[in-house]
Amino acid sequence: MRISQLANEAGVTTDLLRYLERKGFVEPQMLKLEKRSVRDYSEEQIILVKTIAKHIQTGFKHDVAYQKALEEISQPRLI
Fold it and tell me: How far is residue 66's CA from residue 44's CA, in Å, rounded to a whole number?
């Protein structure tokens, strides 16, 4: 999934996705398309971004949201 698609689907900005990438929270694969490179997010990265976004939207700082997202993904709660 490309950056604009993910931003739209996760309800975040492309700037936030680039920030998360700079912080090392997400690592999209870079694909070469003719003369430019584009970010391509795997299914795992998409889930991580959506989970981080959920925690940011509830008021957590980015670093804490990332840690909470990792915990949530690694230990899903049973309903």
Answer: 14
